[in-house]
Specification:
membrane; Oat_ACAT_DAG_ARE; acyltransferase; 73% helix; O-acyltransferase
Length: 471
């Protein structure tokens, strides 16, 4: 029954290019359902063939790496070196994660203490505002404690890219979960409603959702075959992205900054060369995190609701895309930022605040991961992304095919820019000589190396060719 409803909803969306608001609300609660790609791959031979194409590309790329290294260097490199470099100093990363988890677990006894204090003050309603302030201050203190040490440690001594990204993403994940638990259980501490058990609290910390509920729909068994399959997909995609980085990104940017000058044509050629590996990495990252990784954890924890995303790839409106791309984060932003402030600020300002908070969070993750502040994603997501929401609100509904094409064009160009500018800055900070003007916040690639045109560069009007032929 549920699957039929989902299929009918997506059929309606394909015909109209938009999902009615009533249907959006209908699917907010947790129910047992599979992820959209799971349904599509199981039910459509065409989608399964596309999946096989990506697997074959990975296999061909794997053999390309092995054969090239065997012929050129006399040894076999299957990508383990670059993966190990990307997740370097993993022990320090595990220690930081352990600290974050310890702080998150500490919230539960604090909730118990807060409920115990609330039981004494329940007879005095005048004390309730003070108790609310105390509770908010306690949550803020726990959040700051959780974030302060990882931020300080990553700022003091940078981890490898993969390790620092994992630590930072986990930091934000736990911080959002603590907000959700506090929002749900804080009032219960004052009203005398029983708190969840510690077992359920721990379950929520690992469950693939950011919304707290006392109960979630659960499956009856754990299909360990699916768990292993999804974890193998995660490992394969990690190698896949490392291959893309090693074969298509590093050849263009690894020497950036070693020479004092670089021709503009070289930069343009490199940026366009990064478009395809950039968008492939974009799709692989989506599949790895929001499908394979979350489905593996959902299966291990018998978490029944697997709707971590929706059919974002067929939409023609950016507002719908942002809701469907990552329903896990979108639902948290909706429940804990948008809905509480919208009655006071209005829908437009509340939407802008949500975009701003999300863009800043993404930028913090990238800054702590790379070791420098370079707000490329902030401009693309927090500025251009916000502008595209009203521009595609009505036109995307009227011309769904055209604006779906425009949306994908934006994905290709945007990822090509991201996979060019961030590596340029990353290698510029490695290759360029140190300067007294070096700063965490000022991009070094803007001044080193100097971008020049070819000495004999001239512009020839293509229309002059027709004039010469006429004469």
């Amino acid at each position: 029954m549920e699957k039929n409803g989902v299929r009918n909803r997506h059929k309606s969306e394909k015909q109209n290019g938009v999902a009615p608001q009533a249907e959006e609300k209908k699917y907010e609660e947790f129910v047992i359902r599979e992820s959209p790609l799971t349904e599509l791959i199981d039910s459509s031979l065409h989608i399964r063939a596309i999946y096989h194409i990506f697997v074959v590309i990975l296999v061909v790329l794997f053999f390309d790496t092995v054969i090239y290294d065997l012929v050129e260097r006399g040894k076999i490199n299957i990508g383990v070196t670059i993966v190990a470099a990307g997740f370097g100093d993993i022990k320090r990363g595990i220690r930081l994660w352990s600290y974050q988890m310890a702080v998150a677990l500490m919230l539960y006894p604090l909730l118990r203490i807060y409920a115990w204090i609330g039981s004494f003050t329940r007879k005095y309603p005048a004390l309730r505002p003070s108790m609310v302030v105390l509770g908010v201050a306690g949550v803020v203190a726990v959040e700051v404690t959780l974030a302060a040490v990882p931020v300080y440690e990553l700022g003091r001594k940078h981890l490898a890219l993969g390790s620092s990204a994992s630590v930072t993403c986990e930091m934000f994940r736990l911080m959002m979960k603590l907000v959700a638990v506090s929002a749900a259980c804080g009032p219960r501490c004052l009203d005398g409603t029983p708190l969840p058990t510690f077992k359920h609290y721990v379950y929520f910390l690992f469950a693939p959702t950011l919304l707290y509920r006392d109960q979630y729909p659960r499956t009856k068994t754990i299909r360990w075959g699916k768990v292993v399959f999804h974890l193998l997909e995660v490992a394969a995609i990690v190698f896949y992205c490392c291959f893309l980085w090693e074969r298509f990104i590093m050849p263009y940017w690894s020497d950036y900054g070693k020479q004092k000058t670089v021709e503009a044509g070289t930069l343009v050629r490199g940026m366009f060369a990064c478009v395809l590996p950039g968008v492939i990495s974009f799709l692989c990252g989506f599949y790895c995190v929001l499908h394979a990784w979350l489905n593996a954890w959902a299966e291990m924890l018998t978490f029944g609701d697997r709707l971590f995303y929706e059919h974002w790839w067929i939409t023609s409106r950016f507002s719908i895309y942002y809701r469907r791309w990552n329903r896990v984060v979108y639902s948290w932003l909706r429940d804990h930022i948008y809905l509480p402030i919208a009655p006071h600020t209005g829908k437009s300002l509340a939407t802008f605040i949500v975009f701003f908070v999300s863009a800043v969070a993404h930028e913090v993750i990238l800054s702590l991961s790379f070791g420098f502040f370079y707000p490329v994603l902030l401009v693309e997501f927090g500025l251009l992304g916000v502008v595209m929401v009203p521009l595609t609100a009505s036109s995307g509904r009227r011309f769904p095919n055209a604006f779906n094409l425009i949306m994908w064009l934006g994905f290709f160009i945007g990822n090509g820019v991201l996979w060019s500018l961030y590596p340029m800055e990353y290698f510029a900070r490695i290759n360029c000589p140190p300067s007294e003007n070096d700063s965490f916040f000022i991009p070094k690639s803007w001044t080193c190396p100097e971008v020049i045109l070819k000495p004999d560069w001239t512009f020839q009007n293509p229309l002059d060719m027709f004039k010469e032929s006429d004469s």
